[in-house]
Amino acid sequence: MLEVGAIWAFTSTTMASLMFFWSMYKQFVPYQVRNYLEKTLKKYLDKFFGTTSNFVCIKFPEYTGEGLSKSRAYDDIRNYLSSRSTARAKRLKAKESINSKSLVLCLDDKEAVVDVFQGVKVVWSLFVEDKENQSVSKVGRYLTLSFDNHHREMITETYIDHVLREGKEIALKNRERKLYTNNSRLDYISMRDGRWSSVPFTHPATFETLAMDLDKKEDIKKDLIKFTKGKDYYRKVAKPWKRGYLLYGPPGTGKSTMISAMANFLEYDVYDLELTTVKDNAELKKLILDTKGKSIVVIEDIDCSLDLTEHRKKKKEDDEDEEEKKEAENLKRQRAQKESNVTLSGLLNAIDGLWSACSDEKIIVFTTNFVDNLDPALIRRGRMDYHIEMSYCRFEAFKVLAKNYLENESHDLYGEIGRLLEEVDVSPADVAENLMPKSDEDDADICLRRLVKSLEEEKKKKAEREARMKKKKAEKKEKKEIQKKVNGAEENGKKI
Ligand SMILES: Nc1ncnc2c1ncn2[C@@H]1O[C@H](COP(=O)(O)OP(=O)(O)OP(=O)(O)O)[C@@H](O)[C@H]1O
């Protein structure tokens, strides 16, 4: 009995002393010193007794030491863990931003997430440091990876790489996509926003809603997919990983809509480059170098932006309406030219410089209403690899629009509409406008009848235009013949 009492007294005194010693140690010995002592002790124990524990633990802090900037690895791992269906990270929290599709891993302190890679089980947990040990302004948080020491090599050489790569890809996919525009020179000089400013890219266009020939649409999608998968191929053939698309066609045929559909399909950002506000070639080059990968750089209405037609071939136009349009375009171009010193060769250099010098995976798109106005050098293959003609609305495109706007796939009027669309040239924008219900009473029938009426009016206008043209031609020919006769008579008079 006496012995039991003595053992109990001895044990409790020892325990109390140890606890007292431990609390004094934690309270008075600085964290850095404790850390050092514990590490050294572990090192010696490992040396004398072999590995003390079979488990290895790697820490990934939220903030890096230098200037306490956020660590990329920490974010990538969080993205990766958020995507694990096996993880206990089921309590996912949507990010505040409406546009972001990302879900953020929401773990409690010391809560674990188990992952299995190549049959090996690893455990991730979140640790939050005691307040006393935290850095001045940031919360000391880190993710720890624990695994069996037997798999150390595979984990450190393959698994961590895999986690970081996947995490990066998830971040890229989930990021809020942006529509950038180059700032005017005044903004730029005052350094308010740098060279580009951005807004969230929210255009809803997709290839499904794009009205155009179905085969053409499929070809474009296949081409885009091939491009995105072409990293190794481009490297193999020693070509920069870029592709140029030229979209041409009359106004309202969907060139801008196509760009949005491409961006949504590829999940790329869009840089809308306004050439007229670019001061000179050097500034243009810097702007292009400032763009990131996985993006589409767009120059819309390139024929109107600047005088980029140094060797343009002049075409004789009979149609006076066309002449007037071209005259207006020329005026626009001359006005733009006054504000900018960007030249055709500057643009060509910037584009080629872009592909060779900047980040990979970039698409450049030019749009124009007048493809003949462009210098052949600007649109040659290799620079503009894929030329896409956006044409007037025909029956196939109409069916897509009817589905989009009326959720309608057949109607008695479809036959008549199909015939009329073969006879007149109207843009998908015009067709869409007629198909759009203007009030709650407007049903599919009313909208389709409105379209038929508008197409018939267009057909009438076309007939009148053709009659006018014919008359003008006949008058021109008659004038020429009279002139010829007058000239002949004068010649004869001279001879006499
Ligand atoms: N092919 C199309 N498919 C679906 N919608 C279209 C199409 N073409 C035009 N639209 C509709 O018409 C509107 C104008 O089209 P968009 O701006 O894409 O034409 P654009 O060819 O770029 O015209 P512009 O040459 O005048 O810039 C779009 O907002 C869209 O609603």
TrEMBL record:
Residue ranges the record marks as coiled coil: none
Biased composition (Basic and acidic residues): 325-337, 475-496
Keyword annotations of the record: ATP-binding, Hydrolase, Magnesium, Nucleotide-binding
A Pfam family it matches: AAA_lid_At3g28540
Stretches assigned to the AAA+ ATPase domain: 241-394
Similarity annotation: Belongs to the AAA ATPase family. BCS1 subfamily.
GO molecular function, one term: ATP hydrolysis activity
Region: Disordered, residue numbers: 313-337, 459-496
Protein name: AAA+ ATPase domain-containing protein
Catalytic activity: ATP + H2O = ADP + phosphate + H(+)
Signal peptide feature range: none
InterPro entries in UniProt: AAA+_ATPase, AAA_N_dom, At3g28540-like_C, ATPase_AAA_core, Mitochondrial_chaperone_BCS1, P-loop_NTPase
Xref: Gene3D superfamilies: 6.10.280.40, P-loop containing nucleotide triphosphate hydrolases
GO terms under biological process: response to stress
UniProt cofactor(s): Mg(2+)
